[in-house]
Write a structure and sequence with these properties.
Layout (H helix, E strand, L loop, with lengths): L2 H16 L14 E4 L3 E8 L9 E9 L8 E8 L4 E2 L5 E6 L2 E7 L5 E11 L2 E11 L1
Antiparallel strand pairs: 1-2, 2-3, 3-7, 4-5, 4-8, 6-7, 8-9
Bound molecules: copper (II) ion.
Length: about 140
């Protein structure tokens, strides 16, 4: 390795070490998706794993807090079809299963197409929001 290359490598290593700690990893075996809100990282999976149009399903959601943020006080989950400008016909019920785990029951996608999950985490007077698109046929 020549000197210039060695110097570049050292500079890159220093830059990498200066980055903030990487996002926390929520504990959820078989999570379908992991989303980052900045303050939180959220993972979810549906029950049953394959969502069927016109049938109720649940979401299991695990959360972890980044960089000393308190765990969320509450979570809400909703879903919309942005192209059709409508939401679900049912309002899901949210249960807190543990400090880091929530369960949303009673969701239903009543028509095929693109749905967007909308997660809101509230803590210390602030709300973090993250959306995730899913297409169902
Ligand atoms: Cu629709």
């Amino acid at each position: 390795m020549n000197t210039t290359k060695a110097r570049e490598t050292a500079a890159i290593a220093a830059a990498l070490m200066a980055l903030p700690a990487s996002a926390c990893v929520p504990e959820l075996a078989g999570a379908a998706r992991t989303l980052d809100t900045g303050r939180y990282t959220l993972a979810y999976r549906s029950v049953p794993p394959k969502i069927a149009v016109g049938e109720h399903f649940s979401l299991e959601v695990a959360v972890c807090a980044n960089g000393g943020t308190p765990l969320p006080d509450s979570l809400s989950v909703d879903a919309q079809m942005p192209e059709h400008r409508h939401g679900m016909n049912y309002k899901p019920g949210i249960k807190r299963v543990s400090a880091t785990r929530f369960r949303a029951d009673g969701l239903m996608f009543h028509m095929p197409g693109r749905w967007e999950f909308d997660f809101e985490l509230r803590a210390a007077g602030r709300t973090d929001r993250v959306k995730q698109s899913e297409v169902f046929e």
